[in-house]
Amino acid sequence: MSFPQNRMRRMRRTEPLRALVRETTLNPGDLIYPLFLRPGKGLRQAVSSMPGVFNLSIDEALREAEEAAALGIGGLLLFGLPDSKDEQGTGAWSDDGIVQQGLRALKQCGAGSKLVLIADVCLCEYTSHGHCGVVVKTPDGFEIDNDPSLDLLARTAASLARAGADIVAPSDMMDGRVAAIRRALDSGGLAQTPILSYASKFASAFYGPFREAAESTPQFGDRRSYQMDGANFREALLEIDLDLEEGADMILMKPAMPYLDVVRAARDRVAVPIGAYQVSGEYSMLQAAFEKGWLERDRAILESLFGMRRAGADFIVTYFAKDAAKLLG
Length: 329
Ligand code: PBG
Description:
This protein is α/β, with parallel strands linked by helices.
């Protein structure tokens, strides 16, 4: 059937009509809000490259959690900034590390039971060199040593789960970490804790502002020997398959906007829940455009998130979670 019998505009005439035929939904419960925890009291330090994002002491984080829960947001993703860092990233797996303390406090407050508490598992915020694994010297420089990193990551995940994480989310991109974490959880009486693996995590310029927020910029070199090459698609599918074989319960794709083809392909390929991470650079570039008056704020936020849902993401990690929940509410 073609024009004039067919007129696509008939179903776009009014908002109720458009709502009736809308193919994709977006609800506050689909959104995960990242928080950056740091030791102290009453701290709410602005991150200059991410307007609206703060480093928070635990008391302030609890207030954010209350607000997120009241808005119907699905969960929180927790990152930590320890007071001191070392070669091994001890702060990551210490039972009184900053995220472990935050998890215990969140579990005790009312909001903690309404939100899914996801703990990011990585060493980069805790290591003095800023890499996601153990660094060793080699004849021509240095290397991120895969296998010794696995034990540290597994210990970190177990410690976070013991402290109350509902989900642990490894973002380090070491080979074999999902299996190592699963073993550590199971042997530690934590068989019920799911793993959300950052299965396809690309080496991306869009993480720049996060590294300021999390004080995790590598002191030398970059992350391209462990994060994926942005030009690769099949490799992302292989990463997903391997992580699922190792025991991942859910997968996270990151960044989101430049890699929506990968999100769609993952959705068509696997049955597990999929998340997309609208990373710091995606957030900051939109904020910059809003500040300049170049983009219409509310519509651009929702359009960016709808794009990820349409590509097949079940849930979205986004620094816009509160803004979007307010717009949707
Ligand atoms: C830690 C980690 C990073 C992000 C999430 N977990 C930084 C990185 O890999 O450099 C980035 C998140 C963002 O940019 O919002 N490995």
